[in-house]
Amino acid sequence: MSRLGAAVPCTRFGKSTPSDPSALFDKTGSTNGFGSYVAYLPRERLAVILLANKNYPNAARVDAAYRILKSVGHVVE
């Protein structure tokens, strides 16, 4: 157990690759009136990051990101 301010040793993880080369990593989030959505396609080295007022629901952010990916030729089903 560590105390605040005490050094905690860490180990670097090896470089990992997704088992599925067409993998899509995504995450929604919000705080203090703001919302976000991140979609990342590692094989394509492409990411979409959306920041919006929190009154835009997660589904709207996700839909917008998928439309952006589709418009640049990266169809996500």
Automatic annotation (TrEMBL):
Any one GO molecular-function label of the UniProt entry: hydrolase activity
Record InterPro entries: Beta-lactam-related (IPR001466), Beta-lactam/transpept-like (IPR012338)
Superkingdom classification of source: Bacteria
Domain Beta-lactamase-related: 22-70
Protein's recorded name: Serine hydrolase
UniProt keywords, alphabetically: Hydrolase
